[in-house]
Design a protein that fits this description.
heterodimer, A: alpha/beta, Rossmann fold, 4-stranded antiparallel sheet, globular, B: mainly alpha, MetI-like fold, Amino acid ABC transporter ATP-binding protein (chain A), ATP binding (chain A), ATP-binding (chain A), AAA+_ATPase (chain A)
Chain lengths: 247, 214
């Protein structure tokens, strides 16, 4: 199905001490594809997401981005990370900088844009996530949902080829989850390549091209969302879905 | 009071000597401490090892011993400098170990996610440390660095034993001139208080300015 692979993981393995967190992971994400990773906690889905921009190192296997293997360290790794945006569960906005400066910082430091150009682009993006009027506030003055939308704008400011979402709504109050999901839905519609670790089954159903189900460090199922949710193949997935979809 | 008025120029010389030692050694300690703290959190193993050795050796050596090592040791390797410069080197290096650890504890108070976010945007180690981590660490290290520099001001008295002009050393001359030992020391203490309270005040201002905004 994926004709033009952007992210490829081949036979990836990782341990935390004795714990084998990623076992022989093979995953291909095509350009413009939205892949949602779900699974019980401790199944390795966040770790998998973080290996793609090497916030977690791997012990064996290869990860290719746009056909090139991930560099180990240094300038090339930094250059690659600039191409892959990341949105974290805990937002991780720079606490000592204003919202505008948060979005502009890496544009200036990494993309070497001038401050005015960067700020202009930042304001466009803040407008896009509906926060143009919050530009001069500090992150602590915003709600969780607003902070996460700023974090998405910050990632978009680098013009990334792909975006990684590591449980972007798990730290949010229920009423703020939708405002973040709406921004993500919109990105998906615009054709952004996205890897999303989430517990939001509604989002997986409506926005994903594929759903990857992980358990105990392995990819158990990798299918279209409708097929997965209506008729999961594995016992493990049926068990998982029965637990979360019941109420 | 007589002691002070009659020997004002001697006191003033000593006072200025201590101020100079404190200022120059503080600058050296801050620069080196900053460098070593960066080393200790660097992704390169040999840098981390160097930083660790630096801190371990300097922090665990008695300052007097360090003065002996610098003032008597370095000339043996052909490095001959004025004693004042040697004293600044000894004091600065010694204090840098404490500054380094204060900075490092500050770096550890910054949530890991801040650095991860910066790196995930493609910022280099230096950019991450300089624009994201240290500015936030700075806020929590103002008080301990103030204490460390106050300790430095008082430690500078050891330089007097190596014939560097400084405040405490003035007591020898005054004692020989037959002045009351108590009043001699009272005025010396006042001199130190002026210096240390100035440092305190400076750091209070810094803390008010940068310490709370979060």
């Amino acid at each position: 199905m994926a004709v033009d692979p952007l992210i490829e993981l081949r036979n990836v393995n990782k341990h935390y001490g004795q714990l084998h967190v990623l076992k022989d992971i093979d995953l291909t994400v095509g350009r413009g594809e939205v892949v949602v990773i779900i699974g019980p906690s401790g199944s390795g889905k966040s770790t998998l997401c973080r290996t793609i921009n090497r916030l977690e190192t791997i012990e064996s296997g290869t990860i290719l981005l746009d056909g090139r293997p991930l560099p180990a360290e240094g300038k090339e790794l930094a250059a690659l990370r600039a191409e892959v945006g990341m949105v974290f569960q805990s937002f991780n906005l720079f606490a000592h900088k204003t919202v505008l400066a948060n979005v502009s910082l890496a544009q200036i430091k990494v993309r070497k844009r001038g401050r005015e150009e960067a700020d202009k682009r930042s304001r466009e993006l803040l407008n896009r996530v509906g926060l143009a009027d919050q530009a001069d506030k500090y992150p602590a003055q915003l709600s969780g949902g607003q902070q996460q939308r700023v974090a998405i704008a910050r990632a978009l400011a680098m013009n990334p080829k792909a975006l990684l979402f590591d449980e972007p709504t798990s730290a949010l109050d229920p009423e703020m989850i939708n405002e973040v999901l709406e921004v993500m839905q919109q990105l998906a519609r615009e054709g952004m390549t996205m890897v999303v670790v989430t517990h939001e089954m509604g989002f997986a159903r409506s926005a994903a091209n594929r759903v990857v189900f992980m358990a105990d460090g392995r990819i158990v199922e990798d299918r279209a969302p409708e097929a997965f949710f209506t008729a999961p193949e594995s016992e493990r997935a049926r068990d998982f879905l029965s637990k979360i979809l019941k109420h | 009071m007589d002691v002070l008025i009659e020997n004002f120029s001697l006191y003033a010389q000593g006072f200025l000597g201590t101020v100079e030692l404190t200022v120059y050694a503080s600058l050296l300690a801050l620069v080196l401490g900053f460098l070593m703290a960066s080393f200790r959190v660097a992704p390169v193993g040999s840098f981390r090892a160097f930083g660790t050795v630096w801190v371990t050796v300097l922090r665990n050596t008695p300052l007097t011993l360090l003065f002996f090592a610098v003032l008597l040791g370095l000339p043996r390797f052909g490095l001959v400098l004025p004693f004042e410069v040697f004293a600044v080197i000894a004091l600065g290096c010694y204090t840098s170990a404490f500054i380094c650890e204060a900075l490092r504890s500050g770096i550890n108070t910054v949530p890991k996610g801040q650095g991860e976010a910066a790196r995930s945007l493609g910022m280099s180690f230096t950019q991450t440390l300089g624009t994201v981590v240290l500015p936030q660490a700075f806020r929590s290290v103002i008080p301990p660095i103030g204490s460390t520099l106050i300790a430095l001001a008082k430690n500078s008295a050891i330089a007097g034993a190596f014939s560097v002009t400084e405040l405490l050393g003035t007591y020898k001359t005054l004692n020989e001139l037959g002045y009351s030992i108590i009043w001699t020391f009272v005025w010396i203490a006042v001199g130190y208080l002026i210096i240390t309270l100035t440092i305190s005040a400076l750091f209070n201002v810094l803390e008010k300015r940068y310490g709370v905004a979060r």
